Amino acid sequence: MSTRVRLGVNIDHVATIRNARGVSYPDPARAAVVALEAGADGITAHLREDRRHISDADIETLAAMLRDRERPLNLEMAVTSEMLAIALRHRPHAVCLVPERREERTTEGGLDVAAGHNWIAPFVEKLSANGSRVSLFIGADPAQIEAASRTGAAVVELHTGAYCDAARDGHEDEARRVLAALSAAARQAASLGLEVHAGHGIDYGTVSAIAAIPEVAELNIGHFLIGEAIFTGLGPAISEMRRLIDAARVDLQRAAP
Predict the structure, then answer these.
(1) Among 139, 248, 142, which residue's Cα sits nearest to residue 199?
(2) What is d(CA 222, CA 202) in angstroms, rounded to the nearest whole number?
(3) pLDDT band at residue 100, thresholds of 50, 70 and 90?
(4) Residues 229-253, mean pLDDT to the nearest whole number
(5) 3-state secondary structure of 92
(6) φ, ψ dihedrals at 5, nearest 5°
(7) How many structural domains does the chain have?
(8) CA distance linking residue 93 with residue 74, whole number of Å
(9) Is residue 1 part of a domain?
(10) Binding site annotation covers 53?
């Protein structure tokens, strides 16, 4: 169990605001600098096929800037030939393969690695050989975790949306059930030699329970932080998230036998 959980900040929705007016601001690269200064360990950006927020130019800028700063870029992308070519060209520190449908508002559910193994495994092999650490974004499903372990990926990122939705809506029994499933999935993944990350829908009210899962090594959080930044500023929003993550880990350490 790591004593510190890394925080990756997703800056997609800085680009969403920029694109709403078709101007050059706010700049996702500036947001990335603020995030790092506020306690983020790395930056996550999802280059979607429809380019609804992050652009190709953003990825080029972020990749170069973060490489110069020796800080990691986590590129989220669909399992397509176009995205593979982009990732191979920019060689980000990490690539997280996610499911993607053009009609969805945000990523819904996880990859079906069990059904798509023969398509996904070659992507993992090519990206890994090119120097990127590959993560698969999946649900807390034992069959999917087992399938992920057979692709050669180094990491799984567990989809936390169902837990966060249930907790936010006050469905306590459902929240406990889903959190237990996430904890079991994290244990299974770690037993198979996979590093465990988690993300989607996390806010101040839900982060502590997820950060307290012993096997979780990294959280990727975006939409809530950009929204909270409207009221408190991006740096303070990230600093508070960092504080909550660290406090949850300290409590876990104290509770350990």
Answers:
(1) 139
(2) 8
(3) confident
(4) 96
(5) coil
(6) -95, 125
(7) 1
(8) 6
(9) no
(10) yes
CATH number, domain of 57, equals: 3.20.20.70
Q: How far apart are CA 42 and CA 221, in angstroms?
A: 11
pLDDT given at position 254 = 86
pLDDT band at 255 (very low <50, low <70, confident <90, very high): confident
Give tens-digit pLDDT for 178-188: 999 999 999 99
Structure-block tokens of residue 68:
């110069």
13 is in an annotated binding site: yes
Element (H, E) at 134: strand 133-138
Q: Classify each residue of 161-195 as buried b or exposed e, where b means 16 or more C-beta atoms within 10 Å of its C-beta.
A: bbbbbbbeeeeeeebeebbebbbebbebbbeeebb
Task: Establish if 71 belongs to a structural domain.
Answer: yes
Domain boundaries, position 208: 6-255
Confidence at residue 1, expressed as pLDDT on a 0 to 100 scale: 54
Q: How far is CA 160 from CA 12, 139, 180, 209, 222, in A?
A: 18, 8, 12, 11, 13
As annotated, the active-site residues are 46, 76, 200
* Residue 118 among known ligand-binding residues: no
Residue that is written with structure tokens 């996610």 in the block: 98
* Cβ neighbours, 10 Å, residue 255: 8
In a domain, 96, yes or no: yes
171 labelled ligand-binding: no
* Nearest CA-CA partner of 69 in 43, 96, 95, 106: 43
- Let me know if residue 67 belongs to a domain: yes
Q: Is 40 exposed, middle or buried (0-12, 13-18, 19+ CB in 10 A)?
A: buried
